[in-house]
Amino acid sequence: MPTIFERDHVNAFCKEAPIEILSSASGPLSGLTFGVKDIFDIINVPTGFGSPAWLNSHPIPSKSAPFISSLVDAGASLLGKTHTDELTYSILGMNAHYGTPLNVAAPDRVPGGSSSGSAAAVAAKLVDFAIGSDTGGSVRTPASFCGIYGFRPTHGRISLENARPLAKSFDSLGWFARDPEILLRVGEVLFNETRTTKSKPSFSFLKEAFDLLPASVAKQAKEAIALRLGNPQITTVSIGNHDLQDWAETFRILQGAEIWEEHGSWAKDHFNEMGPGIKERFEAASLITKEQKQKAQLEQVEVISTMNHLLSENTYLILPTVIDIAPRLNSTAGELDAFRKNSFKLLCIAGLCGLPQVSLPLLTIQDAPFGISILGRRGMDMALLSEIHAPN
Hints:
Blueprint: H1 4-7, E1 33-37, H2 52-57, H3 66-73, E2 77-82, H4 116-123, E3 129-134, H5 140-146, E4 149-152, E5 172-177, H6 180-191, E6 202-206, H7 207-210, H8 215-229, E7 235-237, H9 244-268, H10 278-286, H11 290-310, E8 315-320, H12 333-353, E9 357-365, E10 368-375, H13 381-389
Helix pairs in contact: 6-13, 9-10, 9-11, 9-12
């Protein structure tokens, strides 16, 4: 049988970190294959973190991330490690060192990141599911761009032991699949929970989120999700006198401050080895002051309070996953940066509040996928996955 590298026509897998673990176990994931983002350690396999400089300055891991054995013991076979944006500090999927994985759903557009290889591998049917991570949108964004399902769980629900952190207060393991049944089955294994059925849920559109879209796209998106949920009468709620732009800035400051605290010392020694955009982001993070961080922490408390008011145990919010379809590969640096900043108006909500969110591949606009998301209250992971698996 050809190796994954021989079959990989989308540059999804890391050639510098070959690994294959074939499972003979019978279990809920029996017969399925998966890839793992190259931030998670696998014993005796290099962890590159999307950066040759990181790869060359860190030892080969002596332990594996705990979830690896959970998936293999459940019957899934690991086919390889997948590419990530450099140091995971991007949502676009473009890596100056290892190239940009191909987005088979829109080949002239970026695949999204930083879990770019994982999303590309699932979209290209190289694996049945793939593990990524989501700090500021790194699962949700590529899921939307590549036309697949992507799930970010409640922050802290799944161990990130033996994983490279970006900003620990926001980092979450996440995963991709082409259908909701596999997405749910992976959740059952990783959460060690069974699927759940609750009383009829309530869904609401988040007004300010849909206001960011052109009116025609917002209308299409609302109609598509209402049809998917079998619920044509969905109410609309508002964050009141708050502004999503302010929330995105709060997130930027908190994330950037944590990133610099975590990696600043190493980054200063390797600025000249970083690709474009990544270096500038680290430099910007280094300028965040203690006072800015403290102010942002107080603002985060207000964001959490607002979202707790809108979400109850059986209430979910609907919003666009990102601001638009994937940018074209030939976009200017300015266009890409503007896309990033605008998308964080939507992506920051789950991050600031540690909420579970799933992106559904429901729309095609200008021949490119566009995801619609459902956001749940903390701890409602399995209920959310069960809901999209078996809509009303």
